[in-house]
Amino acid sequence: MMASCSSEENVGGEPGTGEVKKVSIVVKNAALTRAFADAEDTPVANNLKFIFTTSSGVITEDFDEASTKASYGPYEVSTSAQKLYVVANAQGVAEITATKGANISTVEGTLFSLENQTIAGAILYGSNTTAFELDPDAGANHYKTSVQIAPSVARIQIAKVSSKPAQGDAIVAGDVKGFTLKGIYVDHYYQNATIAGEGDTMIDLDWSTTPTFTDYMCTEFTPATTAQLQGVNAEVAPEGHTYWDYAVAAGEASHIVLHLETVTRRNVLDTDDITENNQYVEVLTFNKSGDPVTNFEPGTIYRISNIQFSTDNLTPQPGIEAKYVTATVEVLKWNVEEITPEL
Q: Which of 21, 33, 42, 127 is least buried, going by the fewest C-beta atoms within 10 A?
């Protein structure tokens, strides 16, 4: 939708001599905090688009750069340019159209799929809406400002899945002694996200039949992974990497469903163990230090050190019986570096 333009925000025509702002831009890559992943998972800002707007968000100019460099420009922008917006890593994921005279909201509302939104290649977005600072040392009509860019998506990371006794520290009759993990599924998730970091189109899996799973929102194990007994708990952890990791859009918190192909429980009579097939564990709520986490924020990783369940949490069909787990999460932020345009 095109924005209406007032007479004081004319963006037409090429600026003449003495009617331009000269822009040089310095970019620093976004980085991860200490314990996220290996160096290759550090986000790198590529395919950057710099979008200048008037004070009310009407686009005046945009500039494209393929990769991170020490500096960019100088660029010439209209004297009406008052704000700067930056999008990175959108190529092949989202079609960013910064039409001169349109409002920046058209860019911020651009949708993209969560597929391929890795830690290293996540779409990055940021803006600076404060007044540009005059930089007389750089020459006539030069200004400077700074912009922070951050991932538009959030992430869920799971480090381990384990059983626990229903009561106390010892396995008693009816408790889970072992299990095989067949699948981990993200449920109640947004199909798309916007550049500005909002979820769009909520997906709720239909567990009354066999749901159609989205590949990048689940992990399936063939064959099912057998939990290893550690004391009284049986547990499964990722092989070859630290976390099961899923990109999710910001907004209402997603759910997690575990599919256990087999569950072994101690018999009430303490004789032969009982084996049950196709049991599920639902994670419908989260907390951080006892406080509920009901919404996911962009640029945030929600790390679950352990989804721990007991026999009381098992259900033969998700969404039917009110048996679910509340998971405790550690909320971690992607570090944000600054992009420093010198106008």
A: 33
